[in-house]
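Appendix B. One record, verbatim.
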Amino acid sequence: MKTAVSLVVITGLTTAASAYAGDELFDDASLFGGDGLIEQSTIDQVDLAQDFLTAGEPVTVTGSFAVKAKHSIVNAASRAIQTKTKVTAGGVISIGVRPQPAYRLLLKTDYDINEDKASISLREGFVDASFLDKVYTRTGRQTLHWGAGVYYSPADLISSDRVDSRDPEADRKGTDAIKLHWPQTTNNYYVYIIDDQKSHYDVALKGEWLVDSAEVSVGLVAKNDGQNSIALTVAQPEPWGKWYGEYVLHHGVVSDALDANAVASDRSQDLLQQATLGGSYTLSDADDYKISASGQWYYNGLGYSQAHWQNNTSQWLALAAAGTVETYLAGQMYVASSLRWSDMYQTGITASLTHLYSATDGSYSDSLGVNYKFTDELRLSFNLGNTASGKLGQYSPSGPQTSYSLTLSMLNYQF
């Protein structure tokens, strides 16, 4: 049950993001990595059955290459103005080997070269197998994705690489796992055995059903550390766009609670909830415009209702260093919104405006981006980012910050 839904633009009201550690709040790829959030679905990103049915050559080599020159300026209240110019070259190489129709090996690597260093990393590396064209397996490092949320996805319980609200279109890194897929007409059933990166394994089950035109899924996860979770997801395409929702219930959460004095206490016996609701609206004319707006609300029951860490800095930093409290999204309430106009009147210009807000600590981030596509091989992007927050706010932990960047992308090539 794979339903593609057009979301031609990014808009998202997101819940607070984790503290930013780089030079700019948003990388240009977060705004112009593609034509927008083209596909969102409750199903896994790769349908193994469909993969086998569309088998191609015995050996395939594909990839991409690009050179980028970027100049950035960061003006933060806590330090002097910083400027940086960086030239990088990089891309992706994928090698697929299919010795016979029922088996396949795939390796996908990212490579990057700049003036400081050269690096290569394995994004995915797995073996696919088909048993009687009824059950399909994938073993190795693979991209896993549960949930339908764009900026925040609490139902995405099994991936080792979380959705980044600042860059929701970014490619996800692979997770070491074994996946079994049993397709049944419009329904799908999955079993997962997942490496928890601590020499142990988590187990997950998932079912997906097509109810009229809506995608509905239920997932169960049992972790080795004692945490158990159940996730319910629904995604409904509409003529005007799409709406979606997720609800997750946890028991046995290992991170501690946090009170007004920044004292941590056990909550492993509590039932903790997360929920999100979002959608998008698209207005399009084939010749002149493609405008999309979207928004998302997120309640994070794993976070804390008050920003106690802002008044108890030393205690909070000690707890965060010990890994006993939630730090990725420490607050409970988040909202996000975004507006995007793609290829304005066929001029090659795309503009995007994104607002991220944490209602827990009051921090927010605004980003304005403009991209001009001269040709497929040559693009110019400008980005303006602005953040504001109090002490240790998630969007701007060091205080207000404004950043500017100009990026020239050249020799964009796919093979």
